[in-house]
Amino acid sequence: MLHIGCHLSSADGFLAMGRTALGIGADTFQFFTRNPRGSRAKAIDPADAAALMELIQKEHFPVILAHAPYTLNPCSAKAETREFALETMADDLKRMEFTPGMLYNFHPGSHTKQGTETGITQIADLLNQILTEEQTTTVLLETMAGKGTEVGRTFEEVAAILDRVELGGKMGVCLDTCHIWDAGYDIAGDLDGVVAEFDRVIGLDRLKAIHLNDSLNGRGSHKDRHARIGEGRIGLDALVAVTNHPQLRHLPFFLETPNDLDGYAKEISLLRSHYREEK
Questions:
Q1: Are the CB atoms for 249 and 243 separated by under 8 Å?
Q2: Are 177 and 234 in contact (CB under 8 A)?
Q3: Mind listing the pLDDT tens digit for each residue in 43-87?
Q4: Residues with active-site annotation
Q5: Is 103 in contact with 135 (CB distance < 8 Å)?
Q6: Burial track 40-63 (b if 16+ CB lie within 10 A, e otherwise)
Q7: How many CA atoms, within 13 angstroms, populate the side-chain half-sphere of residue 252?
Q8: Is 162 helix (H, G, I), strand (E, B) or coil?
Q9: Which percentage of the chain shows pLDDT scores above 90?
Q10: In the structure, what pLDDT confidence band is assigned to residue 35 with cuts at 50, 70 and 90?
Q11: Taking 70 as the threshold, does the pLDDT of residue 279 lie above it?
C-alpha cells in the first residue's frame, strides 16, 4: 500500500498529530522537533508519546519522521553556529527515544564559502560526536537543491558525508523530489536513470524516506521552491511514477507542499487513486 503523510504541527502533541494524520487519510506524518526558525523545544509528555506509539501500532503506521529546525548549520564557518547545531541535534536524538525506532531528518547545511570538502568534513564530524550505539533513531541526510553554498546538492556529496560517519548503520537518506529536480536530476524524463545513479553512488539500502513535492522552477534551477502536486514543473505523472517505482514504492512519502490540511487530504487522495497495488 501507499504509505503517505504530510507535515503536521506538533503544537497539540504527539497523539493529536497521529489522529490528524488519520483524519486526512494519511498513515504517517512529519513534524518539527522544535520551532523551525528558533531553538526552543516543547517539553515532551511521556504519556502522550506512549499513546502515539500505541496508535502507530494499532493503525499500522510504518514510521514517523521528525525534522530538525532550519536554523541548524552543521558546517557554518562560525564555530558557535556549529556548536549550536551539535547541541540541538544531540538533544533532539535524546528526545526521539520517547518514540523509539523512528526517523530524524536534517538539512546538511551551507559551507559558507569554506568549500564543499570542508563542509562535508564538518557535517561528518558532528555526526560522529552525536550518534550512539544505543540510539534507536535513524538519522537522515536530506538531498538538497544547491542554493548558494548548500552541501548535499549531488548524490556524491551525500555519499561523501555517509562514508565519513563511523556509525554508518544509524544513518540514511531522505530524497526530496523538488530538491533533486532543482539540483539537476531528471526525475520526469529519466526516473529509472536517477534511481540507478542513486543506487550506484549512495545505495538504495540507505534510502529511508521521500519528500514528495512538485517544483515551481525548472530542472537545474537550484532554487528550492516547492509546488503542490501536479502544479509545478515536475508534474503529476512524474510524481505518480515515483510513488509506483518498483524500487521506491515501499518507502514512506511525506508531502511538504504549500497546503492546509484540506489541501493535503486532497493530494493524499489523488496520489492514492493513482497508486497501483502489487498483485
A1: yes
A2: yes
A3: 999 999 999 999 999 999 999 999 999 999 999 999 999 999 999
A4: 37, 67, 70, 107, 142, 176, 179, 211, 224, 226, 256
A5: no
A6: ebeebeeebbebbbebbeeeebeb
A7: 22
A8: helix
A9: 95
A10: confident
A11: no
